[in-house]
Each structure stands twice: as C-alpha cells, then as structure tokens.
Amino acid sequence: MSKIWLNEQLMEQQQATVQIEDRGFQFGDGIYEVIKVYNGNLFTAEQHIDRFYRCADELKIVIPYTKDKMHQMIYELVEENELGTGHVYMQITRGVAPRTHYFPGNNPQATFVAYTTEGARPVNNLKNGVKTIFQDDIRWLRCDIKSLNLLGAVLAKQTAHEQGCYEAVLHRDEIVTEGSSSNVFGIKEGVLYTHPINNYILNGITRMVMLECCREIGLPVVEEAMTKTQFKSMDELFLTSTTSEVTPIVQIDEVVVGEGHPGEWTRKIQQAFEAKLP
Ligand code: PDD
C-alpha cells in the first residue's frame, strides 16, 4: 500500500478521487514534475521544485504552498512510502470548475497530486545504448513549460515504441529540438552540441547536471541546434532525462552511430554524472 498527496492530505492511493470537471482531466490544464530518488535520497529536488513553480507561474496557476513546504511534503512522501530507488511524480492543475475554455472566475483551489513509484536505474540502456527514430515535432510552441498536454510526445513515443525504439528524436523542419521525453546531444570531433534553451525545448534538470559534467571533464559545449543531417553524422549521440540519466544513442533511423556502441566521451560523462548521485 502506498501513500499519495491529494492537496494537503496524505492518504492511501485507493482512497483518492478526482472530480470529472477537474481542468487537468478536461483540458490538460496543469503541469507536472518527475524527481528521481536514489536509495531514499531525492536528487536535484530543489531544481525540480523551482521549475514546477516557474511553469505554474507561466500558466497563472497558484500553488497554495511555499517551496519549502512543497519540499517537505515530497520528502515526507518518500519517507512514508519507504521508497528506495524510483521517482516521485507530482502534478498540479487549475482545479475544479464548470467547463469553460477561459480561466474560471471563482479562482478554484488548484488540485495537487504526488505519488511515488519504485524503479531500478536503467542499467542495461546505460551500458548498451538505445535505438531511436526521427519524428516530426508537432508539439506547441511553449515546450519550455512542463505541461500535462503531452499528445505530441505521446504520439511520437508510440511510433518509436512500435518500431522497437526507445525514443523519438523530434525535429522542426530540419532542426533537431529534443527527444519526446528527453534532451538530446551530439559530439563531433571533441565538441558537444545541443539545442539552446528557448521555447522549443524543456530546460532539462539532467541536461544542466550533465553540462556541469562536461565542464568538469573538459568537453567544450556549443549550444547550437543541429540539423537532421548533422545529427546523423555525429561521432556520438546521447539523451538525458530524470529517469534515463545519460543514455547513449547507438542508432537513429537506419544510421548506426559511431561504432554502434557508446562512445568514449559519453562514457566519461556517464562516470562524472554517476559521481554526483546520492
Ligand atoms: N521527461 N524534454 C522533455 C520533452 C521531457 O519530457 C523531459 C523529461 C526532458 C528532460 O527533463 P529532466 O532532465 O528535467 O527530466 C526533456 C520526464 C522525465 C517525463 O515526462 O517523464
């Protein structure tokens, strides 16, 4: 039995109910975060919580707790559920109100939910790498907001899944943006390339930690978007996310990356990343 937060109540998951006119349910009118937990320790929780508040702010959703209180609630949930390694999922929606597209006038209380899931680190993928495919980036123009509206990502990931691939690498025309649920990176002749932070991608927390690793190991970073052609001709490719950490990409469509196994720089980044884990 596992506990969850529903607003300010810590309760059994089975006892939690959500209203059918919750704007998250009807419009995807809300935001979410996924925070990794290693051996009972939250990783980069502060950065995730900061992003949660920034995204809520962008959508004018008012979170009725301070950041400190939120941190405490998440910590308490992990303790209560005796979570070892896994993650916390949290989301907040604009709340329950009669259905209108515009914001409801009576300022409903936001609906906050958080729960934990056990899950081992993806050691196989980290070691051997994963296959990916290109997919058109059909998402909206505010991908910097971690919105509950994920259909563009869901459809791309499903196509990848049907083709036995782990991730869909998204592109707008010729420009590679990010993965359907990850950021993507290429290394060519000892330089790392990745899409700059703007409205076309989510500023990944793992991306930030990984860039710190690059500085530590002396790998120069250029935050410039790659074309599909450039992406396919990189010496090494990898993706990052909270649950995927630093996962090597060994294939994109029909193109085998480098030698078909994770490259030297990627290994070094993985080691530097691993050294930061709690
Ligand atoms: N996805 N880009 C997109 C579109 C994402 O959905 C994610 C994360 C990232 C990486 O962000 P971070 O490093 O902060 O996890 C980039 C989460 C894990 C998910 O949807 O499950």
Topology as H/E string? EEHEEHHEEHEHEEEEHEHEEEH
Major sheet size, sense and barrel closure:
9 strands, mixed
Strand content: 25-35%
Contiguous helical run count: 8
Broad shape: globular
- For the secondary structure, the number of strands is 15
Question: For the CA atoms, what is the radius of gyration?
Answer: 19 Å
Bound molecules: N-(5'-phosphopyridoxyl)-D-alanine
Question: What helical percentage do the residues reach?
Answer: 25-40%
- Helix-strand makeup class: alpha+beta
Low-confidence stretches: none
Distance between the termini: 26 Å
Describe it.
By secondary structure, the protein is of the alpha+beta class. About 30% of the residues lie in helices and about 30% in strands. The chain contains 8 helices and 15 strands. The strands form 2 sheets. Strands 7, 8, 9, 10, 11, 12, 13, 14 and 15 form a 9-stranded mixed β-sheet that branches. Strands 2-1-6-5-3-4 form a 6-stranded antiparallel β-sheet. About 40% of the residues are buried. The chain binds N-(5'-phosphopyridoxyl)-D-alanine.
